Amino acid sequence: MSVKTLHIDGKMVTGLAGQTIFSVAWDNGIRIPRLCHVGGLSDVGACRLCLVEIEGQRKLQAACMTPVEEGMVVRTNTERLRAHRKLIIELLFAERNHVCSVCVMNGNCELQDLAAELGVDHVRLRYQFPKLSVDTSHDRFGIDHNRCVLCTRCVRICDEVEGAHTWDVSGRGASSQVITDLGTPWGASDTCTNCGKCVQVCPTGALFEKGKAVSEMKKSRGFLKYIVTARQKGEWVR
Amino acid sequence: MVDVARFFMEFCMDESCGKCIPCRAGTVQMHEILHRITQGEASMEDIDLLEQLAALLKEASLCGLGQTAPNPVLSTLQYFRDEYEAHIREGRCPAGHCRLAGAKEVRR
């Protein structure tokens, strides 16, 4: 497999052909903000937070979708990109009801961390305050659509890793929502295997374990890694 | 012209698929600001915000719908900026189209 050499933020790095800019940057200690990308799952390039500037290209490219090429010069943290990322986070906060002070994920939330990292201390946009439902029909888990950022991590992990494809997106535009099966309550879903991967992969407090109070929910990446690699390593006996 | 821009933004807002954030949430916010301008409830800062949102949608959206959604706003801002400012500063619609809250005495 051929090796590609490129510059990211002035640093000379190497990656394999077919690797994305995001993963090469990650391997070399360069953190690019992201919300929809999770290692091990397919990428959708939907959150637009990992947009980078590539020299010689007019358009911004999503780092998680763009394969590395020989001699590329990539910039991941310019003034323009920071302004865009900040506004994207503000859009997310204004879109639904992300009230950190009463959220189960307060303190452990990826959206909150990104806001802090990018310096979003207030939202200039008008809050939409949509009236969205909370589904707690499942025995162990719940979903609060008010906290959902529609990153579709749950949809992808359920389809690609668990193979159940319980989750999907219904509707369009601002009224789109993640649903279980064909819009049936989660507890009544025929396909859900109760594995809980979707809960662990959710970046915000949208998917949570029941019985967790404010700030008590913590998502475990270790659990996810185990789930993804255990079968290959033979740690799962079946 | 502000209302024309608002009309096209409403169209893009309805047509957005919702996959990427700039288009899904950005068109909603741009429509909201344009609606406020036509109602005479906006401030001059809203024009700055509108321009920043337009740049974000143009450069960061995933597909052509989001990338072209701010075009009517950008071109009306370029050629009819005085109409936007008349709505905000004077509470007046030069085209006589918008029913502004502060314009009752003027229209009579």
This entry's quaternary arrangement is heterodimer
Amino- and carboxy-terminal Cα gap of chain B: 22 Å
Work out the helicity level of chain B: over 70%
Q: What Rg of chain A do the Cα atoms give?
A: 19 Å
Largest sheet of chain A: 5 strands, mixed
Mean pLDDT of chain B: 90
Please summarize the sheet with the most strands of chain B: none
Give the rounded overall mean pLDDT of chain A. 92
Low-confidence stretches of chain A: none
Number of helices of chain A: 6
Task: Report the helical percentage of chain A.
Answer: 25-40%
Number of DSSP E strands of chain B: 0
Name the shape of chain A in a single word. globular
Computed structural class of chain B: mainly alpha
Structure report:
With 238 residues, chain A is of the alpha+beta class. Chain A has 6 helices and 10 strands. Chain A has helices at residues 21-27, 79-95, 110-118, 153-162, 197-201, 221-233, and strands spanning 3-8, 11-16, 51-54, 61-62, 73-75, 134-135, 141-144, 167-170, 177-180, 207-209. In chain A, helix 2 crosses helix 3 (110-118). The radius of gyration of chain A is 19 Å and the shape is globular. With 108 residues, chain B is mostly helical. Chain B has helices spanning 2-15, 21-38, 44-60, 64-68, 71-79, 81-90, 104-107. In chain B, helix 1 packs antiparallel against helix 2 (21-38) and helix 2 packs antiparallel against helix 3. The model of chain B is unreliable at 103-108 (pLDDT under 50). The A-B interface holds A 44-48, 51, 59-60, 80, 83-84, 87-88, 91-92, 94-95, 124-126, 128, 149-150, 169, 171-176 and B 13-22, 24-29, 32, 45, 49, 52-53, 55-56, 59-62.
